């Protein structure tokens, strides 16, 4: 068990919600940081209802001032941030040749620059205190590519490379930096994609599951246990690593 403070972006629902609740169950004091404050409050309350400590914080990772305000609020309410999970993300599925520069900017601003803003705000204090855990949520799309996700794949590939470099820079400062890469995960976002695919949603989901060696999609809880490990004291000698949580879909 830990009573360290964890700041989880996009922490209200989907994979982020699973991460927030798992950390709360392990004793972390969790700042559920999300653009959707109402959803963040609901997730924080679930953590509290099960005996944990949590607070909901509004954050827009595309706005540096919003990030700074969210970090300040977290420190005031829970204490110094010792664990940060960069989970906030967004994607839409389409062929690269049909994308626009505005689409590229949105993908990169949320999925890549969002993590940069949070790390740039939080990591200096970790270095000063001599302790920190940074866990960036990548994607197997960033490791092996994914059809209809060219720009997202590029952003997540950037997250993986950024993680390794930041890990090198702060390795002597007591701060570890690692990436968790989910594979196909059963979330509201994936269900929305299946519903909008123009095909039978259950068939789309079933096809994804059959492509996984374990023959099922991942769950937010599956991803959360990997994050909780990297956040723990047990992972103090592990940094710059990329861990896929994909049921064996990616073995690289």
Helix content: 40-55%
The SSE string, one letter per element, is EHEHEHEHHEHHEHHHE
- Report how far apart the termini are: 31 Å
Give the count of structural domains.
1
Structural class: alpha/beta
CATH topology: Rossmann fold
Number of helices: 10
Instruction: Specify the overall morphology.
Output: globular
Determine the CATH superfamily.
NAD(P)-binding Rossmann-like Domain
- Output mean pLDDT: 94
**Total strands:** 7
| Multimeric status of the protein | single chain
Largest sheet: 7 strands, parallel
- Order of strands, main sheet, comes to 3-2-1-4-5-6-7
- Backbone CA Rg: 17 Å
Estimate the strand proportion. 15-25%
Describe this structure in words.
There is one protein chain. With 252 residues, the chain is of the alpha/beta class. It has a single domain (5-183, 219-245), classed as 3-Layer(aba) Sandwich (Rossmann fold), CATH 3.40.50. The protein is 49% helix and 16% strand. It has ten helices and seven strands. The chain has helices at 14-25, 37-49, 64-78, 101-111, 113-129, 141-144, 150-170, 188-195, 201-211, 220-231, and strands at residues 5-9, 29-34, 53-58, 81-86, 132-137, 175-182, 242-245. Strands 3-2-1-4-5-6-7 form a seven-stranded parallel sheet, with helices on both faces. β2, α2 and β3 form a beta-alpha-beta unit. α4 (101-111) runs parallel beside α7 (150-170). The relative contact order is 0.14.
């Amino acid at each position: 068990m830990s009573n360290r403070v964890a700041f989880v972006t996009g922490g209200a629902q989907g994979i982020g919600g699973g991460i927030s609740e798992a950390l709360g169950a392990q004793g972390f004091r969790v700042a559920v940081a999300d653009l959707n404050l109402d959803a963040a409050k609901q997730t924080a309350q679930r953590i509290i209802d099960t005996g944990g400590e949590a607070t909901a914080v509004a954050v827009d990772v595309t706005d540096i001032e919003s990030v700074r305000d969210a970090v300040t609020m977290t420190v005031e309410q829970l204490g110094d941030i010792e664990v940060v999970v960069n989970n906030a993300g967004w994607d839409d599925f389409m062929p690269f040749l049909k994308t626009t520069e505005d689409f590229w900017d949105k993908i990169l601003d949320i999925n890549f620059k969002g993590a940069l803003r949070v790390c740039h705000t939080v990591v200096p204090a970790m270095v000063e205190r001599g302790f920190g855990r940074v866990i960036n949520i990548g994607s197997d799309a960033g490791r092996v590519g994914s059809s209809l996700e060219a720009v997202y794949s590029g952003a997540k590939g950037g997250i993986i490379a950024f993680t390794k470099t930041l890990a090198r820079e702060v390795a002597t400062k007591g701060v570890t930096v690692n990436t968790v890469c989910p594979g196909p995960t059963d979330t509201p976002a994936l269900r929305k994609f299946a519903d909008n695919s123009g095909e039978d949603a259950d068939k789309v989901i079933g096809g994804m599951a059959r492509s996984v060696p374990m023959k099922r999609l991942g769950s937010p809880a599956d991803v959360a246990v990997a994050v909780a490990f990297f956040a723990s004291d047990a992972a103090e000698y592990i940094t710059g690593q990329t861990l896929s949580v994909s049921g064996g879909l990616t073995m690289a």
